[in-house]
Amino acid sequence: MSSLLLSPLAAWANLPVVASFSIMADITREVGGERVSVVSLVGADQDAHVFQPKPADVKKLAEAKVFVVNGLGFEGWINRLNKSANFKGVTVTAANGLKPLAVAEDEHGHDEHGHDHGRADPHAWHNPQHVLRYVDNIAAGLSRADAAGASYYRERAAAYKARLQELDSWAGKQFAAVPAARRKVLTSHDAFAYLGQRYAIRFMAPQGVSTDAEASAKSVAQLIRQVKKEQVKAVFIENMSDRRLIDQLAKEAGVKVGGKLYSDALSSQPGARSYLEMFRSNVTALSQSM
Ligand SMILES: [Zn+2]
């Protein structure tokens, strides 16, 4: 309370923070609380893989003190943006320090030339244990830009991490109820390998870890055969991907699309307006359909 007297709230302008996409923005708001104002460059239900910064985005970054990105090559557009904005603030690479999964080698025959083998899969936020690291990195970055807020950020980070731990153990229980042989899922792009690794689920997808290349006819045909042979029942569209490919696959394999997963973006609709909500929705949809 005494700190109110020393620095009246009215005199405090929030720390301006830019986040690369909606999931990073939400996690940053959880950690930064009332001391930060966060804008997201890529909005809800939008695809960060194919995002192209506009002059307005350059301006937002030029005015920010902190830039929070996922890293692991997810935002292929940040270097150019940093340069255009002449950004001199603190860049937080949220996934720093994680041991990333490598992009799967073309199991389904896709992307033979598009992938650099051994490249990291960027979608690490689909494992809440990794998000603990994101939170620590974000808290450290905010504290670097706003040293007076360090203990505030530390406390908020600890409270949010406790919720992430709860989420993770809840998710583990949901999947534990599903027999291992039925933990197979088809989605449009390969975004869920970390979730798969954490809870022993096999994900298949016609597109690779990015959405910027089309799936080949050969890989789609192979995937249809696989879905039939392995009797995959859980088929999902994603909130930020074109659903036509999955509709076609489902039709040709004779399975029904079971619902929607949130992969690379939050939603403006209830059910996935925060990371915690999004993860809960995904786990519920997956465990019920398998
Ligand atoms: Zn993705």
TrEMBL record:
Entry-linked InterPro entries: AdhesinB, Bact_metal-bind_prot9, Lipoprotein_PsaA-like, ZnuA-like
Keyword Metal-binding: yes
Alphabetic keyword roster: Metal-binding, Signal, Transport
Metal-binding as UniProt keyword: yes
Organism expressing this protein natively: Vogesella alkaliphila
Name under which the protein is recorded: Metal ABC transporter substrate-binding protein
PANTHER family: HIGH-AFFINITY ZINC UPTAKE SYSTEM PROTEIN ZNUA-RELATED, METAL-BINDING PROTEIN HI_0362-RELATED
Subcellular location: Cell envelope
Gene3D superfamilies with a match to the protein in the record: Nitrogenase molybdenum iron protein domain
Family membership: Belongs to the bacterial solute-binding protein 9 family.
Pfam families, A to Z: ZnuA (PF01297)
Signal peptide: 1-19
